[in-house]
Amino acid sequence: MPTSPPDKPFGTADPDLSRWAEKTFAPEDPVLAEIRERSVAAGLPAIAVGKMDGLHLEVLARLSRARKAVEIGTLGGYSGVCILRGMDEGVLHTFELSEKHAEVARESFRKAGVAERARVHVGPALRLLPEIEGEGPFDLCFIDADKTGYPAYLAWAEKNLKIGGVVIGDNAFGFGGVVRDVPGTDREGVLAIRKFNEELARSGRFRATMIPTSEGLAVGVRVR
Ligand SMILES: C[S@@+](CC[C@H](N)C(=O)[O-])C[C@H]1O[C@@H](n2cnc3c(N)ncnc32)[C@H](O)[C@@H]1O
């Protein structure tokens, strides 16, 4: 059996290994598959988290024993259901700009049997987040909405997470834009994602890492 290379690469570039992991860990059950399909059929963009990302969210929620969680960017409720599955009790506040998306998400929460624990807030997250601050501090905050908003969402999380609380940001590779110019990529969004990562990694207020999913799932624990 070959030994590990001395300089171990980050993530896997081997699609066979990715497929094997998906097959072995079976991240998407029929409930989640139905949410993904119904969301697209309702005209929502196909931009929900990937299957393994959904499983990461569930496991991270469980690891952090989350009871009070926040999600910024609901879409059709796919990731929200994953987070709630990792919470034996408690509430997820999820924020969504579009009423149409929120409507699909409410149905998803209902079908997944978690509707009574999901609070869907409709409108721009930055305007609405202060309304829940009285319920904090929170255990987990998942950021997955407009990319230009990431630094402000991280600042909100820093202020409203407990010490030991977890912040997670999807698309943290900025669709490749954090390292090179990618034609068609929103420059302002990429710069904001870069700022989000730098703040998360270097501010000293989080201990953070990057889960090397295809789009980059940044995860930090508030340490001060
Ligand atoms: C990538 S999708 C979220 C996917 C979802 N987390 C999932 O994996 O199932 C981003 C969502 O954020 C919403 N959004 C964009 N800007 C927003 C804002 N300022 N406030 C709240 N939601 C916003 C979009 O309408 C969209 O539904």
What would your notes on this structure say?
This protein has helices at residues 15-25, 30-41, 51-63, 78-85, 99-111, 125-128, 150-160, 187-202, and strands spanning 68-72, 91-96, 118-122, 138-143, 161-169, 206-211, 217-222. The protein has a single domain (15-222), classed as 3-Layer(aba) Sandwich (Rossmann fold). The termini are far apart. It is globular. The protein is of the alpha/beta class. Helix 2 runs antiparallel to helix 5 and helix 3 runs parallel beside helix 4. A 7-stranded mixed β-sheet has the order 3-2-1-4-5-7-6, with helices on both faces. The longest helix is centred in the last third of the chain and has 16 residues, at 187-202.
How many domains is the backbone divided into? 1
Classified by CATH, the class is Alpha Beta
In helices, the fraction of residues equals 25-40%
What is the total tally of β strands?
A: 7
Oligomeric category: single chain
Count of DSSP H/I helices: 8
Mean pLDDT: 95
- End-to-end C-alpha gap: 44 Å
CATH architecture: 3-Layer(aba) Sandwich
Overall 3D geometry? globular
By secondary-structure content and strand pairing, the structural class works out as alpha/beta
**Rg value:** 17 Å
Order of strands, widest sheet: 3-2-1-4-5-7-6
